[in-house]
Design goal:
- With 513 residues, the chain is an alpha/beta fold.
- Helices cover 36% and strands 20% of the residues.
- It is built from 16 helices and 18 strands.
- An eight-stranded mixed beta sheet has the order 8-12-13-7-14-15-16-17, with helices on both faces. Strands 3-2-1-4-5-6 form a six-stranded parallel beta sheet, with helices on both faces.
- α8 (180-193) links the parallel β5 (168-173) and β6 (199-202).
- α8 packs antiparallel against α15 and α10 (250-275) crosses α15.
């Protein structure tokens, strides 16, 4: 076999997600292992890492939950949620090899004895598989359980490193609190047990390839960053729309709503990435330092500005994808007179040198006309109109995050012919065309980073609290006022008509959904 044949046959040559160096051996304890998040997202993500040789061959996963279950039952249940057939290299041998590393522990989250037995089990696995004392805890439980688990981890001496050469880390799912006060209380509790360097607050949006590419696009190319400021950019629009309803999340959603569920986390994360200054280097502290500066520069909302700059909505019955769907108040588990918002649109301002005077328009909602997550940069018009009589469009740069991952740039071009007519055209980059259709599960990306100790794509305590500080005045103003006459937009539409006023008042308009 020639060197060229060897390279072609190697996993690295055919597998873009192949890890040349596997992560260190470790024990992964998944709290809430019988829940939907663990089964539908985390287990398939870990299997993906296993297939691409990113996990150490000697890893062990312990599922922890209240439900009584044997190791074999847990493995069988986990196997049902792994990819089918040859998808992601999911042949039966690979699945069997992965599943043999799984075991189950039934216990209560606030029971000291359960955690003492868990500690003994982890010590046993350390000895059997030579895991080096490395441990990763994943809180895939309801948020009200977080503090119970953290207290018991501390009491059973599971939060500290086993030795100078080992590591212990914890991943905490959103929502991280329900307001700034509760987020700070949770941070205080977590940081009384763990060091900040051990804590990984996860937002799966940041694991998407296209979100990460925003940093490369801005800071890895010399032609865009000089234009990325108030001198050339007129406005920024960030959209995160869904065509789905609340599905099986009514119990959570009734207490959260679109503002807490999406704006406080995903959408403000995107805002930070768009608006941040260039970090000194690409490491966790440098990137997160720049992101927190953006959140701290956003103009705080007052009671008066909330009513002027924020619009909320709730979907009623309508048609999505040609099918009749119920309104939010008719969904199972939702109160008949619920005032929970399923749509939010707002205008905010980043008061710093780069972005002074540039409005950021954010919107998110459920049961809209189509699923779409994008960041649209609208540039200013040319300072002098040379081609009079021609209605030239302004240039826009759109970063499509999902579902059609890519980047498009619009500009004016002359229409062929004897007359000077200008028409808008687009240059499109599609991820699937350039790199193939495969993309890594966002949870797989973030789990891989955590196991390797890279916190760049995870939230820090100060960032979480700063995001809540921006959202809290909105919820306070809403709680003291009268909600709009819900429902105020039909399912399958672009949202409430009042959202258009945010942009029309400024002489702009939303991009069509």
């Amino acid at each position: 076999m020639t060197d060229q044949d060897t390279r072609a046959a190697s996993p690295k040559a055919t597998d873009g997600f192949f890890c040349e160096v596997p992560a260190e051996p470790c024990a992964i304890v998944m709290f809430g292992a019988s829940g939907d998040l663990a089964r539908r997202k985390l287990l398939p993500a870990l299997f993906e890492l296993f297939v691409h040789q990113c996990l150490a061959p000697r890893f062990r996963l312990v599922g922890f939950a209240r439900t009584a279950m044997s190791d074999e039952d847990f493995r069988k249940s986990a196997g049902e949620f792994l990819p089918k057939g040859s998808e992601q290299g999911a042949d039966d041998a690979k699945k069997a090899e992965f599943l043999k590393n799984l075991s189950y522990f039934a216990g209560n989250y606030d029971d000291a004895d359960s955690f003492k037995k868990l500690a003994a089990k982890l010590d046993q696995l350390d000895g059997e598989a030579q895991l080096g004392g490395n441990r990763l805890y994943y809180l895939a439980t309801p948020p009200e359980v977080y503090q119970h688990v953290i207290v018991q981890l501390a009491a059973s001496n599971l939060a500290k490193k086993k030795s100078e050469k080992s590591w212990t880390r914890i991943i905490i799912e959103k929502p991280f609190g329900t307001d700034q006060k509760s987020a700070k209380a949770l941070n205080d509790k977590v940081l009384s047990v763990f060091d900040e360097t051990q804590v990984y607050r996860i937002d799966h949006y940041l694991g998407k390839e296209t979100v990460q590419n925003m940093l490369v696009f801005r800071f890895g190319n010399g032609i865009f960053e000089p234009l990325w400021n108030r001198n050339y950019i007129d406005s920024v629009q960030i959209t995160a729309s869904e065509s789905l309803g609340v599905e099986r999340r009514a119990a959570f959603y009734e207490n959260a709503g679109a503002l807490r569920d999406m704006i406080q986390s995903h959408v403000l994360q995107l805002t930070s990435l768009v608006a941040m200054e260039a970090p000194a280097n690409f490491d966790a502290n440098a990137v997160r330092n720049e992101k927190i500066k953006v959140l701290q520069s956003i103009r705080p909302f007052t009671r008066e500005s909330v009513w002027k700059s924020v619009v909320r909505g709730q979907y009623g019955p309508g048609t999505v994808g040609g099918k009749q769907v119920p309104g939010y108040r008719q969904e199972p588990g939702v109160k008949p007179e619920s005032s929970t918002e399923t749509f939010v649109a707002l205008a905010l301002h980043v008061d710093n040198w780069r972005w002074s005077g540039v409005p950021f328009y954010l919107r998110t909602g459920k049961r809209l006309s189509r699923p779409l997550t994008e960041v649209a940069i609208q540039f200013k018009r040319a300072p002098h109109m040379v081609f009079r009589g021609e209605n030239t469009e302004t240039n826009s740069l759109v970063l499509n995050i999902q579902p059609d991952e890519g980047i498009s740039l619009s500009f004016g071009a002359k229409v062929p012919g004897a007359q000077m007519h200008i028409s808008p055209v687009e240059m499109d980059f599609k991820y699937s065309q350039a790199f193939g259709s495969s993309s890594r599960n966002s949870y797989a990306t973030l789990l891989n980073d955590c196991i390797r100790g890279d916190a760049t794509l995870f939230d820090r305590a100060d960032s979480v609290e700063a995001a809540w500080a921006l959202v809290d005045p909105i919820t306070e103003a809403w709680s003291s006022g009268t909600p709009p006459p819900f429902p105020n937009y039909p399912a399958g539409s672009a949202g409430p008509t009042a959202a258009n006023d945010l942009t029309i008042t400024d002489g702009r308009r939303w991009r069509p959904l």
